[in-house]
Design a protein that fits this description.
This protein is mainly β. It has one domain. Helix content is 3%, strand content 44%. The chain contains 1 helix and 9 strands; from the N terminus they run βββαββββββ. The strands form 3 sheets. Strands 3-2-1-9 form a 4-stranded mixed beta sheet, with no helix packed on it. A 3-stranded antiparallel beta sheet has the order 5-4-8, with no helix packed on it. The chain has a two-stranded antiparallel ribbon with strand order 6-7. A hairpin with a 6-residue loop joins strand 4 and strand 5. It is globular and about 45 Å long. The structure holds zinc ion (2 copies). One zinc ion (ZN) binds next to strand 6.
Length: 144
């Protein structure tokens, strides 16, 4: 057995890495599965939403992270039913988003959270901070 050499071209060998459970209050609304290559440690994700089966783990992962990107969950809380999606982003990237509270891009700041902290309706969470934990999608009410 030789030592794995990350820079060497290889077929990624994805192993199950961690889960992030998405909650709305006490209701589980989805799970983000993270898979990691055992050789070079790139990560892929699969979002499983209630009642919706995703087959990317079997079909191969179309998007992988890199040294300067992170997997994030974007949440829109403008409507009663929060909307969410998973993206792989660089610092400074923009998420195209239209809703009743916002038309236009949402910029991702330094720590992979939303750059505009005064935006009460949108959040960006770095999944690395929630591995094997619960992520609450309901946005906290404004502190008085
Ligand atoms: Zn690999
Ligand atoms: Zn929105």
């Amino acid at each position: 057995m030789s030592e794995p050499i990350p820079s060497k071209p290889h077929e990624h060998e994805f192993r199950y890495y961690a889960a992030v459970n998405l909650f709305r209050g006490t209701e589980a609304v989805g799970v983000v599965d993270l898979w990691r290559c055992s050789i070079c440690h790139v990560k892929a994700t699969e979002l499983r939403v209630q009642g919706l089966n995703n087959l990317s783990a079997e079909a191969g992962f179309p998007v992988l992270d890199g040294p300067d990107t992170r997997w994030v969950v974007f949440v829109c809380g403008a409507e009663e039913e929060p909307k969410f999606d998973v993206f792989n982003l660089h610092v400074g990237d923009e998420i195209q988003h239209d809703c009743v509270e916002k038309v236009g891009p949402i910029r991702v700041g330094k720590d992979y959270s939303i750059e505009n902290k005064s935006d009460k309706y949108h959040r960006v969470y770095n999944l690395d901070n929630y591995l094997n934990e619960n992520l609450e999608l309901v946005l906290a009410p404004e502190q008085k």
